[in-house]
């Protein structure tokens, strides 16, 4: 297998430098000059290997969010529907979602999206795709579950998981995240029982 191309190496180097810069200085403070200096390159290298600022931000978003989505997919691959749902909850509230520097980048980009319609749409596309994938997992494991309610529960699970990740650096007792995971499963089981009851009543 051949080595990655120089362009791929340079692009990865730039994105790592951009992530470090955004984590430290925020999105507004991460100029192309600052990122170029951190990467040991010139601003023209940034434009050559990644593109303009919007293209750099898009690439940075993919750089930090894609590993989470890939890990979520990997955690569910090859499992039966009910086992997939349990594995999903284990993943969302497990050590895989532990706080790291990429979370600072994700939060900075989401904050930047408040004033950037283009970036907001980009981020929304990613999270809505995740919401749909989680909703699909729910529907496959809960017979009779409709699309709207699976999406609502998927959104709730995403909010709970990312809220938990945001508060993770604070010294809450270990029972808090454990209780959150139990609550997530209770929500799923309540939906399952409701759908089973409806099916029995027909």
Automatic annotation (TrEMBL):
Transmembrane segments: none annotated. GO terms for molecular function: DNA-binding transcription factor activity; transcription cis-regulatory region binding. Keywords: DNA-binding, Transcription, Transcription regulation. Residues 8-68 form the HTH tetR-type domain. The keyword Transcription applies. Residues 31-50 bind DNA. This is HTH tetR-type domain-containing protein.
């Amino acid at each position: 297998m051949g080595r990655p191309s120089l362009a791929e190496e340079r692009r990865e180097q730039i994105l790592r430098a951009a992530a470090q810069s955004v984590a430290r200085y925020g999105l507004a403070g991460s100029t192309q000059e600052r990122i170029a200096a951190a990467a040991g390159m010139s601003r023209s290298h940034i434009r050559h290997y990644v593109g303009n600022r919007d293209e750099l931000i898009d690439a940075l978003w993919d750089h930090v969010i894609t590993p989470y989505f890939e890990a979520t997919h990997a955690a569910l691959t090859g499992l039966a529907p009910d086992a997939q749902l349990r594995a999903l909850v284990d993943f969302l509230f497990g050590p895989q979602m532990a706080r790291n520097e990429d979370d600072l980048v994700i939060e900075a980009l989401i904050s930047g999206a408040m004033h950037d319609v283009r970036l907001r749409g980009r981020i929304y596309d990613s999270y809505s795709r995740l919401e749909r994938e989680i909703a699909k997992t729910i529907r496959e494991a809960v017979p009779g579950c409709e699309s709207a309610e699976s999406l609502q529960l998927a959104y709730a699970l995403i909010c709970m998981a990312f809220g938990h990740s945001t508060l993770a650096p604070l010294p809450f007792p270990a029972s808090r995240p454990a209780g959150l995971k139990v609550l997530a499963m209770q929500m799923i089981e309540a939906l399952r029982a409701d759908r089973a009851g409806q099916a029995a009543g027909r």
